[in-house]
Amino acid sequence: MSHDHDGHDHHHTAAGTTLLWAMVLTLGFAAVEAGVGLWAGSLALVADAGHMINDAAALLLAAGAAWLAQRPPSLRHSYGLGRAEFIAALINSLGLLVLVGWLAVTAVERLQAPQAVMGEAVSVTAAIGLAINLLVAWLLARGEKNLNTRAAMLHVLGDLLGSVAALISGLVIAYTGWTPIDPILSLVIGALILVSSLRLLREALHGLMEGAPFNIKSEEVGKALAAVPGVVSVHDLHIWAVKAEEPLLTVHLVVEDMAQWERVMQVSHGLLDENFGIHHATLQPEPMTRSVQWYESNRSLARDRTPTLS
């Protein structure tokens, strides 16, 4: 079966370029926001800046992973380096968890010892940050959709929420002088980021542990293959992914007649491609007679090894 590797390389290159542009915009404004936040005394603004700096690092990791993923397979890495996307997503999720911890501790301290905040400066800066984050989100939404870009998008969406929280905080303080709104909104944003980061962490760990993609149910794949005319049974079915969007499969198919194997193989490949999005599959044929002999042999062996009670 042939695959359009040039097309994949083009998509990964475009994704890497988009991620780099997103990183430059994010990091540039994070420096401005951090400076204004420290000057104005706003935890929400400093938290948002910290989140954006974390995001810039996440976007850099994502861009690096996108570059590695486009490298061709080699004798040492026969599947290529697509798993770098899972590693980048894992590091990104752990970075988000660290950020959430810092936000929670600092917000509680601010609630216990409120500080003066310059609401007007916070509001203006947060509004600009919101516009920057919308631009970055738009760039990412136009690019290739994979685990890496979705991880980056989670960071950016967290930034959007942080900018909204900082904007609300600045407006409330400017018009009412009620400073506890600043750490309270920081805690709310931290909780939202926590949910997203745990979901991302679960997906990254699942991929690194070579679990079957969440959108593919192994039992359904096995039943579909067993229903192919000429297939007697299915065993040793394995589904995993080197890249999040490129599942791989290996399976043993017991067939009634080996003379039918060419047709069975073509039908099975078509079924996997069209119904489950599995384009890389290795199908191992087994004649029914050998499978029956193997079953009988193992059943006899198991019976002989069964201990007797006297």
What does this structure look like?
With 310 residues, this protein is mainly alpha-helical. It folds into two domains: 5-208, Alpha-lytic protease prodomain-like, CATH 1.20.1510.10; 218-305, Alpha-Beta Plaits (2-Layer Sandwich), CATH 3.30.70.1350. It has nine helices and three strands. It has helices spanning 5-40, 43-69, 84-112, 119-142, 147-176, 181-208, 218-226, 261-276, 288-305, and strands spanning 231-243, 246-255, 280-287. The protein has a three-stranded mixed beta sheet with strand order 1-2-3. β1 (231-243) and β2 (246-255) form a beta hairpin. α2 packs antiparallel against α3. The relative contact order is 0.11.
List keywords for this structure.
Alpha-lytic protease prodomain-like, 3-stranded mixed sheet, 310 residues, single chain, mainly alpha, disordered N terminus, 3 strands, Alpha-Beta Plaits, 2 domains
Short description:
By secondary structure, the protein is mainly alpha-helical.
Topology:
Elements: H1 5-40, H2 43-69, H3 84-112, H4 119-142, H5 147-176, H6 181-208, H7 218-226, E1 231-243, E2 246-255, H8 261-276, E3 280-287, H9 288-305
Parallel strand pairs: 2-3
Antiparallel strand pairs: 1-2
CATH class of the largest domain: Mainly Alpha
SS-based structural class?
mainly alpha
Query: Which architecture name of the largest domain does CATH use?
Result: Up-down Bundle
Reported for the largest beta sheet, the result is: 3 strands, mixed
pLDDT < 50 stretches = 1-12, 301-310
Beginning-to-end CA distance, first to last residue: 59 Å
Number of helix segments?
Answer: 9
